[in-house]
């Protein structure tokens, strides 16, 4: 089944169970200061789950665009993590509870997704006899229900407040799938950190209120919060073992290869080309969606995440196309395909297409001019280290790459990993701190430290008027 069809079916399925469809919230949480990006469907429903907010409906469903920067390093390395993905969700705010949630998740798996149930597994929290009994009562054999601990199967919004056990749905993709098999290890089963048993749906049962002293009191209102990864179920439904192989990425990857003037079919690419193609496909989606929602490139916080992601993508694009002209943007050319593939459901990316392309173009060109010389410098550092029989890039050198060539430290770390080197990030952090101290001292000199606004203006100026960018100027933007 095509990805767009699964999204439609999911929403329709829960609408027939009297859930109200609520559009996806922005990728940038407006009211929530605790997170930089929306990481799950429940973000916009937090207050409904605690009971602080009461809406006209008690059941909701949606498809939420999510950003998980924490999964950045897994992209292109394993088959199951994207940095931007869609989470299909269903909620009960003090209405139905475990029985319906489990029954409907199984029903959707069986009747709509039509997944092979002989490969189905469920997990429950080791204390949750109730969930275990419900799974058994709907026909899942006990040996296919795994009891896991807090790490996998207990969910909490924070150190105190609403929390509860969860139950997850898995499909075994076969013994030859996953990193355990590749490394000759025995896979632990559901909950193992490899791709074989693919977790695709998480059902959270919110039933406790955790107190300051850690005790769990029963909540007056019990709720359900479920999240299913759209790309993951699409992969399972389409018989693919990696998210980047699903239909949704096909056209995006074709456009990447076309732009890079690579004539091979995706399956004939080298492993390195495949990885680069996947990373670009992933990162361009993140950039398209976050910029559409109003995020901008900058040297701090959310904007710096965007910058890091773009720079990684540019480096992979140039790896695919080594002679790519420095005065043109590679990534800009892929935006239109993301828009055609996903714009029907997310009109904000259609509406903001030109602005997204422009922002990406400007940011890419700033970096392209220093990428080549930065890579040459990196190689020089590598040779220097080798001549001393070392396999580490020092904190000072990571700092030079960062300060003069615009290489985010995680990009240097990835470059190091690729050649079996280590990056001394601890010492890099010390250099960063020292520079911050220096710029703070200069800030005092200019009396800008009492007020953010001049910095903000300077920062804006710095970003807009920056055709001759040579590394970014922390002096202006870090306070
Ligand atoms: P994993 O253990 O595989 O990292 P998770 O336990 O962190 O997943 P949840 O927080 O339970 O994931 O999110 C609910 C669902 O969202 C998951 O069951 C999965 O289908 C999907 N999902 C989570 N992270 C990603 C990701 N980075 N890319 C694609 N889908 C994801
Ligand atoms: Mg995870
Ligand atoms: Mg998990
Ligand atoms: Mg999970």
Report on the architecture of this protein.
- With about 475 residues, the chain is α/β, with parallel strands linked by helices.
- It folds into two domains: about 5-235, BirA Bifunctional Protein, domain 2 (2-Layer Sandwich), CATH 3.30.930.10; about 245-475.
- The protein contains 18 helices and eleven strands.
- Helix 2 links the parallel strand 1 and strand 2.
- Helix 11 (about 330-340) crosses helix 13 and helix 14 crosses helix 16 (about 425-445).
- It binds adenosine-5'-triphosphate and magnesium ion (3 copies).
- Adenosine-5'-triphosphate binds near residues 81, 85 and 232.
Secondary structure: elements and pairs:
Elements: H1 3-16, E1 20-21, H2 46-50, E2 59-67, E3 84-92, H3 98-112, E4 120-125, H4 129-137, E5 145-148, H5 150-153, E6 154-156, E7 161-172, H6 179-183, E8 197-210, E9 216-229, H7 230-237, H8 247-259, H9 271-292, H10 301-320, H11 332-342, H12 347-351, H13 353-387, E10 392-393, H14 395-405, H15 409-418, E11 422-423, H16 425-445, H17 453-464, H18 474-477
Parallel strand pairs: 1-2, 4-5, 10-11
Antiparallel strand pairs: 2-3, 3-9, 4-7, 6-7, 7-8, 8-9
Bound molecules: adenosine-5'-triphosphate and magnesium ion (3 copies).
Sum up the structure in keywords.
alpha/beta; BirA Bifunctional Protein, domain 2; 2 domains; 9-stranded mixed beta sheet; about 45% helix; disordered C terminus; binds adenosine-5'-triphosphate; binds magnesium ion; ATP-binding; Alanine--tRNA ligase
